[in-house]
Amino acid sequence: MMTLEKESIEAEEEKEQQMMEARERERAKASQAASRESVKGAKKKPPKSPNRKKGGKSPGPSAPSPPPSAPEDNTELQRQQEMQMKMKQEYFTALECEEAAVNARLELIKTKALAVYQDVLSKAQQTYKDMNMWLGARFLAEMSSIDKLIQTARHHIETSTKIQYELVLEQTDFYISSDVKVFPDPIPPPRPPPVEASSNSTLTISQLHRLHRQFLQMAPEGIISSKKFTEILMDLTTMNLGDDTLPDVWMHLTLPEIQEITSSLSLGSDMMNWRRFLLSASLPWPYPSLLQLLETLQRFQATDPDMCGIVDEKEETYSQVELWFTGKAEEMVPEDPTEPLPFNRLEHLIKSFSLTCSPTRKHNLLSFAMWICCYTSLPIQIPQRDSIERSV
């Protein structure tokens, strides 16, 4: 830039120099021509004028103009040229200083720009490197989630099971949403009925029912000979092994032990009531007092407006009468729906008492008076009940 400016200034100066030299030459030519004309005019005489008076003096020749002082002009010209040259030198010197300052600034700008460029370039390279690393990690995570989805689907296909919960593939995450079900839960199977387990010497409800049916066939009225009762028990303990007719402890009774049980129930008589035996064998259950039996009788009478002394089991009148104990109990419900509920023995005993203690039960009609009388006779047998349990 400075070189171009110098060249342009030098070209202008050269052009001005040429113009000044041309003017000087013209001026010199003009001055020389003027001096020659003045010299010629002095030598030539002027012609006589006819109107000139006599005795008059003729005007003399005109004085020649002095030639221009060439040395003074040259000195002034040289002084101007020197002044211009000095101004040009100062100007060029100032331009060179400015050029050096500008070059220094440009070098600083260039150095700073290169530093910034290198910094930006390194940051860009690191950014691209991080982006490639992140993209690779995200790709691997997505492929891992897809593999997990494939493995889950393969497991269900190979095991022939339905996918119950929603499979969610969300960006890089794969999870099973337990909040969303693809199909509703299957209806759980009904809980199996409660089963009473045999324990020690206590007869189960099913065993009591089997004994009741067998004694009912032999003696429908409830009265049986002591000898026949002994024979029946002996047959049950010896001929029915493995059919769960009696508890395991009862199956090992000997003949003297059975005779002792019969004697304690018959009180030395040849006849006995097998219904009382079933009531004693169904223990344990809450034994009533006389007051509780009277209150129960009054509740039965309240359901019998015709004063017939019977209630109809078909109409569930018997189940509506409150006895001296209830079959309601707090039961722990198992968490597993395939497990049966706990067996409520007292509730089933209340139902079986209507079979055991009704000697005149016909057409689902229960004589509650005879039913109550069956329990009133039990206190006489209480001392002997301990001997029955000891014998068993």
TrEMBL record:
Region (Disordered): 1-80
Biased composition (Pro residues): 61-70
Pfam families: SPEF2_C
InterPro entries named in the record: SPEF2_C (IPR056199), Sperm_flagellar-bone_growth (IPR052634)
Biased composition (Basic and acidic residues): 16-29
Domain SPEF2 C-terminal: 202-353
Biased composition (Basic residues): 41-56
Protein name: SPEF2 C-terminal domain-containing protein
Organism per entry: Staurois parvus
